[in-house]
Amino acid sequence: MLAYPRQLLRRNLSPKTYNLLRYSRWGATIYVPRLLVSLVRRSVPRIVGLWNSSEPGPLQRLLAVNLRAPTRLCRIKTWYGSDKGKYRHNYTTVYSALFSGIRNKALRIFELGLGTNNPDLPSSMEVQFRPGASLRGWREFFPRALVYGADIDRDILFEEDRIKTYYCDQCDASSIRSMWSGPELQGCSMDIIIEDGLHTFESSMSFLNGSLEHLSVGGFYITEDIARSEFDKWIDVLETVYARRVPAYEFGLVALENEVNDYDNNLLIIHRTS
Fold first, then answer.
1. pTM more than 0.90
2. How would CATH label the architecture of 42-272?
């Protein structure tokens, strides 16, 4: 679907029918071709930097993941309108491997960045993606989890079964502190924290500085969409600051091969070991 036909369909079809059409197109043009290609070709994550590693840790096990192979989580995220399993990012393949052993646990999951469509705000998504889609995907993938989210766009905050969202400006340390000290989050540790916000080195560092302490033992903190041009900055701060400051955390800067995105299809994955 090109831009104009897509807008026309959105206006004239019910949301349910349009979503089914969008999902069916994704299945035919992306999911099935990826599935067939994955049977004969492999592509694995590349760990650019690894600090405080233990053997064999969850980050090392990612080296066995075939990035070309789509997963159930890819289907879930795409159904709800998230871009995590689309052609520009293949994070869902990594997440499926990383979280498969804890799927049925009563977890607390937090994601910064609900996916605003407001063009006046930085890091706005394309209109075909839906605000809150990723949180709804996590709720389905983790059937016993409580899912929390936050965004700078107050207009897209919402509350549903097992989902609550909050305001947060990730560039403002006081805003981050205020969110974590709220009555429902204060004293709670998160098993998974995913930062999918503004996608600049400075903003990601700001949220990392204010949020890493809220990760539970055994939990994962992940920063998405790290630009390859900023790898050196990340390596420097992880090596000289974080790896020394918090030795009980394992840090991995992970590059993911993608035919259509060699710019920011990369992750920082942090695992709290004790």
1. yes
2. 3-Layer(aba) Sandwich (3.40)
